[in-house]
Records
---
Amino acid sequence: MKGNSLIIQSGGPTCVINSSLYGIIKEAKKHPNNIEGIFGALNGIEGLLNNEIIDLRKENEQELIYLLNTPGAVLGTGRHKLNNDYNNEEYNKILSQCEKYNIRYIYIIGGNDSMDTGNKLYQFFTLKHYDCKVIGVPKTIDNDLVNTDHTPGYGSALKYIANTFQEIENDICCYQNGKVTIVEVMGRDAGWLTAGSKLSSINGNGPDLIYLPECPFDIEDFLMKVKNIYEQKHYVLIAISEGIRNKDGQYIHTLINSGNQTTDSFGHINLGGAASVLANIIQSKFNFPVRSIELSLPQRCASHISSLTDIEEAQEVGKHAVIKSLNKDINGSMINITRAQHNDYIIGYQWVSLSSVANKVKTFPKEWIVNNCDIDRGFINYALPLIQENNIIYQENGLPRYAKLKKEKVIL
Amino acid sequence: MKGNSLIIQSGGPTCVINSSLYGIIKEAKKHPNNIEGIFGALNGIEGLLNNEIIDLRKENEQELIYLLNTPGAVLGTGRHKLNNDYNNEEYNKILSQCEKYNIRYIYIIGGNDSMDTGNKLYQFFTLKHYDCKVIGVPKTIDNDLVNTDHTPGYGSALKYIANTFQEIENDICCYQNGKVTIVEVMGRDAGWLTAGSKLSSINGNGPDLIYLPECPFDIEDFLMKVKNIYEQKHYVLIAISEGIRNKDGQYIHTLINSGNQTTDSFGHINLGGAASVLANIIQSKFNFPVRSIELSLPQRCASHISSLTDIEEAQEVGKHAVIKSLNKDINGSMINITRAQHNDYIIGYQWVSLSSVANKVKTFPKEWIVNNCDIDRGFINYALPLIQENNIIYQENGLPRYAKLKKEKVIL
């Protein structure tokens, strides 16, 4: 099929979502007999609906290379959720827009919500006999996509987290009377990122306690452990997921701080703050010096410390999305990463159906959680290859040089 | 004078306090006719009082090189303040300990409090006719020492801050309806670090608003500016110092949040949280989506992004401390950094009296503050040379390899 391609970035940004974009563009340019226009939708699927579509062939080659160390989503991202009913007005608009722009290849870079969007597009196009390949390109720092060994974006977040924990440990251990330091890591439902703090134990001591959302958080047991450790070594380093919950499934933050509970503009409870709540409890109960730290956005945008392995894999999933979309048999699929059962780190790129990935969450394996507050060596073996090699940082004036795209609109 | 040397690390750690330690050790080894023992006091001056003194000549050479990318203070740090009365018991203990260990050279790596300690030791030794050189080696991320162009530690903190602001901006700008993002930077009394956020404007847009403690913070004016900017561009990036105060000198955090005001174990008001307080006000007043981020400890320990210029200068001040202490005329002095008035960045190492530095604070120049909420180009010209060149990171397993010292106690 000959026609134009449309690339969509969707969901939370990562350090390498733009590397996948680069991988797609670079490969697409090699197939001009199939892929004519290489278009980008601004701010997710909404860009398609609103004619906010740019021509990526017009971008300067060097600027595109800078995408490899540019954090954030350069096309802009969105969280628009498509209706479950294919009779909904919106789908007709999508179809007419795709016809108008002659879109025959759609590449969606995103997480499980985005794969749901991709799956709906695929199902709808099939229903309407509209010939368009829809291919998902996995992306999330959370590593919570099923049917893939890991997700691009996770390795760089891990590298940031592991480095930061090692640095924080070295900072807090140098006082005679140090602090109980609680570091809050992203992850509402899956502890993959928080577990990454354990990597700091390879060349350092690592956190004393690590709590993931996969295990009920027992505050009494936690306080007892903190007290014992502090009395022994005069500082404690603790990693917690933002999403830790008690045995009744209530978020620790909302449970304790219910008077100050806030919600976002969509009514979702604002997480974050669990570390600060726990720090206050420790201080008032034991009068130990405490500090809470939220790693916050740098977890997903600290591109200066991206893993080169992650950057390369993010490009590869983009490249394979293009290659496999040109194979007639593949549609409604997400490119996944498979790993050979082998001591060396050998991976391959295959595909799975978007429907098998959409809206599902891969939680952290229970067998890698030790006594509810530590992480097993098995995880280290799994995760360590993902953070290898340092990003080649493009700089000007000692500061990162990010891609500056012209973003010329497609004019029909 | 022939005798032993004692190195002390004091005050808050930085990324390069251990580089100064390395610079001292390396240079001291070149002068065995003057400097016999190269000792380190554990946890500041208290190590001397408590016989917690290690023999740095026994450390492995390669491990010492790893000091160049090891954050925290490997000797341990302290905040012990010496008495103002030289008749105090403590001083006799210090003298007897120095005599016992035959300490003839003391190098104190620290900030203005530590220079006060150094100055008191120098004054006391002079009073007692005890022949011992006391030399200060400047160190602080805060850059608030007088009589020096800048302080080792500042450049690396700046580099972290500038990179992080650039990354955060790229993350938050990619949503159609972004957040008002308030980033809180260290600095109670001086805005040097917060001003560093402006460096992110060189290759990016930089923060929309920057507030330092040097200017009274007007909350009504702030809210009006935030509203205008958000309505124009749908996200706002704000940098604030933790120490911003209103025109009456009250900390914004304590003023607004007085019900929850907490103090540390010494009764100091816990700062931090100003960003969170301001974010809550913006959300409740305008219902804009908001996020507050405290950069917290990584500002002073993110050694993976240290400035090589800073590492080298930190070594040099250590080296010059040794060289100049062997010059009979210099005592009770701190090594300082001077800069030639020249387009190129050319610096020299001189010295000033400890008494001229002790307990003083160099605030951010008013002439570089624009309209209370922006930073002048003059600061960029001043600061940019300090963040140049990237740290050569020593790694194992893709993670930093820090120095592991044996810390063998000196046995007399």
Note: Confidence is low (pLDDT under 50) at residues 257-271 of chain A.
---
Amino acid sequence: MNGYELEDLPAEEIERLTERATALAESVRGLIQTTVVTEVGDADLDEAIAHIRAAQLLLSRKTLPGSFGVRFNSDGTRRTWGNAVTGTRNPVAPPVVLAHDGDRTWSEVTMGPAYEGPPGLVHGGVLAAILDQVLGSAAEHAGAPGMTGTLTVRYRHGTPLGPIRAEAWLDRREGVKTFTMGRIIAAGAVTAEAEGVFILPRWARGAAAESLRPGVGDA
Amino acid sequence: MNGYELEDLPAEEIERLTERATALAESVRGLIQTTVVTEVGDADLDEAIAHIRAAQLLLSRKTLPGSFGVRFNSDGTRRTWGNAVTGTRNPVAPPVVLAHDGDRTWSEVTMGPAYEGPPGLVHGGVLAAILDQVLGSAAEHAGAPGMTGTLTVRYRHGTPLGPIRAEAWLDRREGVKTFTMGRIIAAGAVTAEAEGVFILPRWARGAAAESLRPGVGDA
């Protein structure tokens, strides 16, 4: 098993699953944010932990054998719900919801206290993770999907916790390499700039690689 | 308020708080991992969500007004529990626990399904976040704490989910800039290499900056 699964689910079933996955993940995201800032005493803490363990026990009754991977539908759509940055059902992910506007790929997302690095600021590594995803998506949007080869982030200013915008665009293509650029904008200023080199997977070379498809060797 | 707080807590109280924070965060980390892979039906899901909301309500009874920031103790130790990569009480953080061995700063940590990018592999952005933290800690360990100026990550191979080792060391210092290098090792191979430039905060320049201290301007 290589983590890619082809599932032929009807659109309404996917919609229903998405709704359920979102409800669950959103409840856990709320819990995460509160966990970081809670100041309650031992009694409340113990009761909260008991609830959390009960929830985990219920969710453990039936699980996937490994990680979520990528699920493909016969209509060509795919679900990457486990993705650490964009995953709908991954509470670690903000999640980053990607949009495309002309040649620009972007996302607007709010960074809560769970994404803190220096006091009051977003962790530089979290920004790097978001940039990796947005720059990679820009490469794919330009018709050249790939694995990250190199990612460079230049930090210009601290990025305050709160709403941020990440955006990326194609710079150029050179053979199997696609170069994209991007940046983080927060409170009206560019706080970080990035360059990414994405490498076309071996299995997609020589083919019309218009979208990521199930296959091996793309690591 | 700049997010740095000086707290004069006795050592045993800090130990007790650490134990409680760890118990809470670990329960939420377990819940996160299960959330990503659960396949239970609606009844279990609804009951789990009810428990999660109950837990959040309990923890919400008393919270910090903003993010966790950095708490200093009079003995010079500090707590960065909210940190998205190393935070003891931040369930988003694996957490990365840093160690120093001679001139090397390192961490060994297990990447569960919540840190997935490509199927079965760690998200490249998560690796960048860990490298940012470990390279920055290596700069601080070398006596030159700083904010990340530039971070470059070169991905050599996919990094399988599971145990990884991140390590970093000082390369050189040039004025207010400290250059560190590092890498990720997984399943016996170097899967990513990184270079970081860390900038000494303005407030620490000209002073004996042996450790990060409360102050403004370090953004």
Note: The helical segments of chain A are 11-37, 42-59, 124-141.
---
Amino acid sequence: MPESLRVHYRLHCARGESAEDKAVGIALEQTVELPARCVPANILTNFSGQLELLEQRADSIWEAVIAYAPDLVGGELTQLLNLLFGNISLKNGILVSAIEWPQSLLDHFGGPGTGIDGLRALTQVPAGLPLTCTALKPVGSRAETLADLAYRFALGGVDIIKDDHGIADQPTAPFTDRLAACQAAVERANQQSGGGSQYFPNATASPAKLPERLAAARDAGCRGVLLSPWLCGLDSLALARDHYGLAVMAHPALTGSYFMPHHGLTPELVLGDLFRVAGADASIYPNTGGRFGFSQETCEAINARLRGPLGGLKRAAPTPGGGMDVKRAPHWIRNYGPDTIVLIGGSLYVQGDVTDAARDLLQALGR
Amino acid sequence: MPESLRVHYRLHCARGESAEDKAVGIALEQTVELPARCVPANILTNFSGQLELLEQRADSIWEAVIAYAPDLVGGELTQLLNLLFGNISLKNGILVSAIEWPQSLLDHFGGPGTGIDGLRALTQVPAGLPLTCTALKPVGSRAETLADLAYRFALGGVDIIKDDHGIADQPTAPFTDRLAACQAAVERANQQSGGGSQYFPNATASPAKLPERLAAARDAGCRGVLLSPWLCGLDSLALARDHYGLAVMAHPALTGSYFMPHHGLTPELVLGDLFRVAGADASIYPNTGGRFGFSQETCEAINARLRGPLGGLKRAAPTPGGGMDVKRAPHWIRNYGPDTIVLIGGSLYVQGDVTDAARDLLQALGR
């Protein structure tokens, strides 16, 4: 493990643009934010980014590695994001492709509190079999309607029944009403079936309201929540983990604009590294072949960042969704392995009886 | 004012892609997130987006307008962002170009608490003259060093002296130490000069720490703070306004990836509409001709969204920065008008004595 935070960039240089100027510009822009001649020598050495590698990879494409002192992060995920891409998001041709994490930052941020093994324990799904997840929708439904759906999904054996990420605190199903109704419904189904289904309410909210939503979820008996980190902050994951003991499923809402080929952050960095390091136990991403545009290679890269060795952090569960269907689910589990959560929404609804649809899904997955 | 939230999209359709399918797909994806045939009729009518206009504008370019029920927002900025661009951020060729706001949402979110006139009152700058701002840096400097800089900038007459947005809670200058030292320094300078300089500390932090940073800033006597909404949430602006009575200068860190020509959110929508509606009194953006890439047209569009009529909300101050220099500042004020904050960092530092540099700036601006 490096002592520094080593960040890999793929630079796309316009005609006449110097790759070295561009790389050195990043190292200054993201740290001291002054021309080098205005920066005291000791600060330039210790706090500006240090260009460690610059190599041409293809016509107009260069790889750069810049090392940053972990102290620049100041122990905060907000500042980590700023250091990675704050000001340079406003420039062009800079793709942050990978991070080599120093152990000190991994230890500090802590990663998943529950992880794949913990989710298996919560849902009573033994190792070697995939987990299943679905979403309660559509927005506009009343709390009792959503609770009835939750009951029927749970009877069918879906392991994690989450709110759709667009269901927040709308007047048709306010958070508090929905929480009570859906949690009671899932508990009732578990009592009847002997199953271990879990309801994960969407707790995404403002900093002022987030703590009360998380406390309410815990107090209602929920063991986990859904959070959209790009809406309510990466730190919301750690808050749920540390202060409320909740597992967290992270949703990628609003992240898509970073995933451009020549500028941004790679999907595996955001939905893999960052979500896991910040505390996600499961990370939802749009599976290839669905209604979004990730390649299979990207999906596998996300899986690798969520489950591969990372300084002793627990493994997080890849949760491919977005247009998956029951028939293709076994195919994806063969590809991605059993330590995966199959997220299927619409394809269960179109079958009419969601309990039967859920049972079909479990059967298809050998459960 | 419309009763609905009317969102304008510029759709870039690939060969063979139907603009109508794409537009209807957005209306469903961002709301009910199910195929229309699975959605009860009353919900489809009242809660899915309603396509109101679809017109071809150029080869492969279409304009669409979709109306959403304000209830979908549920009164929360997190869900507003999700409704605008949550899932479709992961698709292609969708640019959210403008919003027509219903009065109900403007009234609910409230906009700037202080506004341009309030910032003038705080800093004692009469109408008709521009305000000035600079940043304390570089990161890695000790609190006393930053405080000494703050003192000297204030003596020179800079109106708003903010932390650089990358200065957070690093061990070299922890937030609490820096806050006390810099605020005392600016107060001391004001006593000597009779001026009204204000120190705006960077309070950007996790949901768990944000309230204590804002409370500390208020208790130290600060009248405003710097916040990066894309790091700590749009709601952080409202929190500072409502619970702590602080003015807010918003920083665009991490927003740049949305500003792509064929996919994303326009700069005037994010740094103009959204920041203002959420409560920013001043919005920093990278001025044209500096080290970032906005066109003058984009800068003027941001200014218009910050200062134009918007359902009775206070006007927010455009704060162009990012490579501005003292010599060109009068040019920009002639272009943008006096209700503008001139943000100059590096160009003051390179002159050596920052007090003299600040005086030169004020003189150039007719102050």
Note: Chain B has 15 helices and 13 strands.
---
Amino acid sequence: MTEKLLCGVDLGGTKLSVGLFHPDGKSVAELKVTDHSHLENDELVSKVAILVHELLESQKIHQESLTGIGVGMAGHINFDKGLIITSSNFPKPFDNYPFRDRLQDKLKAPVTLDNDTNAQAFGEFLFGAGMGKKDMAFITVSTGVGAGIISDGRILRGYTGFAGEIGHTIVDPVSEIRCTCGNYGCLMALSGGLGLPLRYRQCLKQGMVSSIGISADNANKVDGIVLEQGVEAGDEICVRLFEESAVFIGIGIYNLYQSINPQTVILGGGLMNMGFGFMDRIRNKFDSFLQNMVQDKMEIIHAGLGNRSGLLGAAALPLDERNH
Amino acid sequence: MTEKLLCGVDLGGTKLSVGLFHPDGKSVAELKVTDHSHLENDELVSKVAILVHELLESQKIHQESLTGIGVGMAGHINFDKGLIITSSNFPKPFDNYPFRDRLQDKLKAPVTLDNDTNAQAFGEFLFGAGMGKKDMAFITVSTGVGAGIISDGRILRGYTGFAGEIGHTIVDPVSEIRCTCGNYGCLMALSGGLGLPLRYRQCLKQGMVSSIGISADNANKVDGIVLEQGVEAGDEICVRLFEESAVFIGIGIYNLYQSINPQTVILGGGLMNMGFGFMDRIRNKFDSFLQNMVQDKMEIIHAGLGNRSGLLGAAALPLDERNH
């Protein structure tokens, strides 16, 4: 009997990747396109199906030789029903679109649809920095902040599939920074890329002076790259935002630690590429809360798969026990 | 074949209860003692074993007729190893005492040991307000605040068994209220009975006037009962503490909702017996964060088993899938 291969689809707003993998995560073949984001919902399904067919044919592989086809999608997913509820990464609205079943109609191997953060978490768990860690969380620190949680070796999805939305936990109830969700003091707004312009503007309003030459009107230009440059230049506002982000990520990790007690927390996402001791600051904040409270120390580490966790994790989705 | 009965032990500092139940939770017989808390560790094990034997003999039941014996304990438990790490409810220290294995040596049916909040959560899940809710949390709002989490029908324990310690999540990083754990702004300190004296004292310091005649030196007398009386009397400090507690419990529930997405959150514990709309205030705070964010609304409800959830839940522990 030959080994069953894994097929994954990483469906983002910028790029759409399809990959074929051995069960140990080793790549067989991959395809990538960037001309998909403006397609209508049904056309997008067709595009994905065509790419899967192309990839399999190029390797002379039958769908029957696959464990399944996993799709990781940057959006709000109803896992049980296989719907894309919304996605802010695509110009066409989805509005509870039954993506999984429509794609299933065009393919023979069983299709699994989940959000990209869960896929990334599962990829890190099976093939990356979380290998063998049955209780772990992957946190993406990017424009937004969110987690994929692995509990006892399975993806923790919760009742409707929204588990892991730690970016919307309230970590500073008296904050004046308002998240896109409408609430004040969300972890995401106080630590992610999304909140940087708001927080930059607030600093200016409080009388702080910036040396990076970005006015309040242009604050939307403040992203992770500008922030890192500002820190390098010693700009007081950038240094403050940088330090505060690390503090709140540390709080978010500590709160997740107390809530679900993972062995390992893996950090990925664009902001984690910042230097200047960003990771160390996060760890220090976490440790300051932890004190000597526990016997078994939790580790906070960088992601192991980089930007490949999404595709590998998507491919691995059909292996999640909770599907069965 | 006759049905297998459940046997539970609720091991608290004040009382020690042992109960025998049908698989549907219906009581067969129960015993309760209150003379156990000063016993040495080994004597306590013997006491529990004797009570179990007495109860079974009184009903002419053999241990072979039990699914198992579950022990719910008010303390820090290492579930995998069956240790009591510490417990603040007993005068004798435990210090990683292997309670489960010592008890197992004296009994034939398999023994399971877990903390009381997990037992209560599992009791509410199988027999109480959470029946049929595969993703739920039970939160005890008492001297401390903690949660037992049921994920996909199983107790979520995490890596070392500490999952659910939401009382130590940081919900107000600039708070001046220090929890017994040493950190500032823990949910427990800002909403549980433990923090009431500290918060009362802080109000006096800020110049607020109390009409209930308790000075800063006697603030330790401020508990849930005093608080409720103060609210009834319209005392401005008590009203503020009451309202703040509801706000922070609401934040804690919302943060847990975003993290693990339960269908239902069940509230129990002494402070939940307070009237004057305490529950409604908690729900309103939660709803104010939720806005129209989701399709499926999470319910927040009172516990269904009252103070019986500990014993029933302990008895049910051997049924938890994750044990097998």
Note: The CA atoms of residues 250 and 283 of chain B lie 7 Å apart.
